[in-house]
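Moderator note: this is an archived Q&A kept for reference. The question asked for a predicted structure of one protein chain; the sequence and the answer are reproduced below.
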Amino acid sequence: MKSIMRRVSSIYRKEGLVALLRRSSNYVLESASKKLGQPILEWRYPDDGFNVLDEDWDTLVIFDCARYDVFTDVVGEDVSPRRSVASVTANFLRRTFSKRTAHDTVYLSANPIVGKNEEHLNTYKLVKSWESRSSTTRKGQESPGIMDPKPLLERSVELHEKHPNKRHVVHLLPPHTPHELKDGGPVPEDSPYRNYKAAMKHGISPAEMLDVYEENLLNAVQLTKEALADVDGKVVFTADHGELLGEGMPLWMKVLHHRWGNQFSKYDFGHYSNCNVSELREVPWYVFQDGDRREIVAEEPIGSTRVDESVEAHLEALGYR
């Protein structure tokens, strides 16, 4: 209590009464929405999505937050729409894997959210491959390995060779922000095109951000096709959820969401939990190749492989903190 009073006193002295009242009202509203908003959103969220574990595939590539409509434009081939079980990765993992046994599956991920939800993944092997080191892009520039698809795809090929009798999930981050590419070159860390918060602050139009999102998705798809071209079996591309690219969500969802504040416009971009809108739930289902099928065998799990333990730092880089 004393620390709270000191904080209140400090805000009053430095910023004045109006700022104190504004912050206090936001705190009350956010606290209320955490306790009431999310339960209401989850209660209203329809359980009508498909479970990827029930589908026919040998290798499943998940492009994080890849929208069906944009993916279809990028691939330019037969892509089927599917309805995801979730509108964020954490819920996708829980609703897909909880109470399920996937001892025939190797799960390789670049998304640290997977590490936060490891208890839900009863797989043969989980490889947590987010990285704090830098890796070199095709343009010779340095970029965070967490976003670059190439190291993960190289690791995936190795895992396919090491575990040829398993299903493989390859969870890539692009087109998730921070965006790495624009107009064929690297995006500087201080660029307004790197994430949606910076874009809104600098007045970047939704159309421009859509172009950047599409470029990063296209790059990831092309690299994946090249890396997995010689992998046996049925290889399918999909997404865990979609992305808002300026469309926003209904006002009542903005009010109820647990990160609610006085800036409703931020909910026009990105992805948020338990938001039942088509832009977040409609994902692609694209059969990249359907070759000679692998003989899949379930075995006792051999645990997880941790490449890097700095989960919180990576979550912050992705905009979750």
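Archived answer notes: The longest helix spans residues 17-44.
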